[in-house]
Design goal:
Blueprint: H1 2-13, H2 36-69, H3 77-88, H4 92-104, H5 110-118, H6 121-143, H7 151-179, H8 184-193, H9 198-208, H10 215-236, H11 243-246, H12 252-276, H13 283-298, H14 302-319, H15 328-343, H16 353-356, H17 358-361, H18 367-373, H19 378-385, H20 403-406, H21 410-420, H22 423-431, H23 433-439, H24 446-463, H25 466-469, H26 478-486, H27 488-498, H28 502-531, H29 536-543, H30 546-568, E1 573-574, E2 580-581, H31 586-619, H32 626-635
Antiparallel strand pairs: 1-2
């Protein structure tokens, strides 16, 4: 009854009379006699309201893209870490603690959700920008010898910088979920992917101003503030209506097509930055390339104009035709209803009680599920022997979990281990790129390695949207895609442990960036699918506590091996304050081997998670378009 009332109020808000009234019985046949102009005018006003909401939500996508593109400031840590280490005169272990502090700020991500309860979203956005500006600005003053700070204040500054990144991410998540309640996974994958381009954009900006490595710190504080200012107008103009209800009148297919075009544009931007960054060492070339990149980032603003032009063309073309009183939206809807009526009985939606009963869930003799249950591999049987496959398994996608219930789930801890032993290792690798290049005598190519990692991380994040575009054509569990994404990581680390040339270093960096980028982006959607959307903010922040923990442990492992090799090899290089510099392949070879073994554990955990959850993905057919479901249920 409540859904019916909501539906009627939604229809009425677009200028259509209440269903069931005398005035509405003529809809679908002809307008009431004498009220043709009023009827067509109401429909026109409704379409204009919908078109305005559509334009504004795509402007919000553009704003989220700008925020994400310029706030991935943790990716360029390697560009200035060596200079920061020299300026403070600290050891590799102490430098690792600073990197851990930046990641530890992400564990404070819950504070951004708390701030949104008391402050409007634009205020939270500018508060994050101000925190980042202060934190990175103070570090820039330190590294340029304008001020002097002890170790602990610098640790706190790195903590605040990491916290500001998490606040930016939370703002973008909220924008995507509010404006795309149906296609939020596509919106999240697209916007999050641009976070991987930050290092490439910052490299262009640093080369454009002809600055040193310390310039990165200054840019890390200034550019996010400027991007937040530019994104303010679209955020303030976002629709105030309930887009979950209006989305039911939208063509979900049309949104998917727009997202596909935006993903193609994003792919072009990634190729542009990856292949043309090599010629950006000259300031004039860097300025030209930076200008081109900014123009490409402005192209998503064209989407609202295209949508408005399409809507105007449809109104103009059909206003003088036989379809004057029907409208193209009604024709599209009629086609969809006729097509969906044939297979409506075969669709199963998430939350259907028929698929959540224990008897049906545990029955392995029906249809496709029985065939898949009988095809378990030896790894599946091993997991069953360990009582990990059948014990406390999830019964449906989107099932809500409180924090207490979450930490009692085996699936959560498998997911946590896959993240902790997978993507987090890739992040720690990126933090050590500066020292890795320095130990191999490739310090001049540090920015190249950072650009390769950043760009490949971007492509990995972009590819994470593949399951959504294949929805309805190829039904494969998203947790399975997650397991596939971890596969390149141990291969890359074993390659780095054995090879020393620059080509192997570039190839390994590319594979690690691709794998970790996919995992970072897909993890948000997996968290919402496995543990519910209502508690996504809390649950996902619990999950990413593995990042500072992994940064501490894996970074400490690398730092201890680095310092031990530096003290035991050849003529030892000691800078001021006893700082040891390790040179040679052995500085990180053993670290790469241990990281490869750790990522194998992450791969095993992700495979176990897939085997435990694949049944709930198989049982859920591709969801119908929301608009079809509502109209079909009310026409029956």
């Amino acid at each position: 009854m409540l859904s019916w009332l909501v539906f009627q109020e939604t229809v009425r808000s677009f200028g259509v009379p209440r269903i069931g009234t005398a005035k509405s019985r003529s809809i679908g046949k002809h307008p009431p006699l004498g009220n043709e102009e009023e009827y067509s005018g109401g429909k026109s006003r409704g379409r204009q309201v919908m078109a305005g909401d559509q334009s504004r939500k795509w402007m919000v996508v553009a704003a989220a893209v700008w925020i994400q593109a310029f706030t991935g400031t943790n990716f360029d840590f390697s560009a200035y870490s060596s200079d920061l280490k020299a300026a403070m005169g600290i050891s590799q272990v102490q430098l690792n603690y600073l990197a851990t502090a930046s990641d530890l700020g992400k564990a404070l991500g819950w504070s951004s959700g708390l701030a949104l309860l008391y402050f409007p979203l634009p205020a939270v956005l500018f508060l994050a920008a101000s925190i980042g500006l202060a934190a990175y600005g103070a570090q820039w003053l330190l590294i340029t010898n304008r001020i002097s700070l002890s170790y602990f204040p610098v640790f706190l500054l790195c903590l605040l910088a990491g916290c500001s990144i998490c606040w930016f991410n939370t703002v973008c998540f909220v924008l995507c979920i509010r404006n795309f309640p149906v296609n939020r996974s596509l919106a999240l994958s697209l916007t999050i992917s641009f976070n991987g381009l930050s290092a490439s954009l910052y490299t262009l900006a640093a080369n454009a101003v002809g600055g040193s490595s310390s310039t990165y710190l200054l840019l890390n504080g200034v550019l996010p503030f400027l991007a937040s200012t530019a994104a303010l107008l679209p955020i303030l103009l976002q629709s105030s209506t309930n887009l979950f209800l209006s989305a039911r009148f939208d063509a979900d297919h049309n949104d998917s097509c727009v997202f596909l075009l935006l993903n193609i544009l994003a792919f072009i931007i990634g190729l542009y930055l990856l292949f043309l960054n090599s010629i950006s060492s000259i300031p004039s070339n860097a300025r030209m390339l930076l200008g081109g990149a900014i123009l490409l980032l402005l192209l998503p603003l064209c989407v609202p104009g295209v949508l408005c032009a399409r809507d105007w063309a449809r109104r103009t073309i059909y206003s003088s035709s036989l379809f004057k009183l029907i409208g193209v939206e009604d024709l599209d809807l009629q086609k969809q209803l006729v097509q969906s009526s044939e297979d409506s009985s075969t669709h199963i939606t998430i939350g259907d009680p028929d698929i959540n009963s224990d008897d049906d869930y545990n029955d392995g003799t029906n249809g496709e599920v029985a065939g898949q249950s009988s095809s378990y591999s030896w790894f599946s049987w091993w997991c069953m022997y360990c009582d990990g496959i059948t014990k406390d398994r999830l019964r449906a996608l989107g099932e809500e979990h409180t924090a207490t219930r979450l930490v009692c789930r085996i699936d959560f801890w498998l997911y946590y281990a896959a993240y902790f032993c997978g993507a987090t290792v890739g992040l720690v690798y990126s933090n050590n790129l500066g020292q890795i290049a320095q130990s191999l005598g490739r310090q001049s190519q540090t920015t190249t390695l950072i650009t390769v990692y950043s760009s490949c991380s971007f492509f990995g994040r972009l590819i994470s949207a593949t399951p959504d575009f294949l929805r309805g054509k190829f039904n494969f569990a998203r947790t399975g895609w997650l397991a596939i994404a971890v596969v390149p990581m141990p291969l890359a680390f074993f390659l780095l442990a054995e090879a020393v040339d620059m080509h192997a270093l570039l190839a390994g960096t590319a594979l690690i960036g691709l794998s970790s980028g996919f995992f970072f982006s897909a993890a948000v959607c997996v968290s919402s699918e496995l543990f519910g959307t209502n508690s996504l903010g809390v649950n996902h922040n619990i999950l990413i506590t593995n990042i500072p923990l992994g940064s501490l442990l894996y970074g400490l492992l690398a730092a201890l091996i680095y310092d031990a090799n530096g003290k035991s090899m050849g003529p030892m290089i000691i800078l001021r304050d006893g700082m040891v510099v390790c040179m040679g392949r052995k500085c990180y070879a053993k670290t790469f081997f241990w990281w490869a073994c750790i990522t194998l554990i992450g791969l095993a955990s992700s495979l176990a998670l897939y085997l435990r959850t694949k049944l709930i993905y198989v049982r859920v057919a591709p969801p119908q378009q929301p608009r079809e479901q509502i109209f079909q249920s009310n026409r029956g």
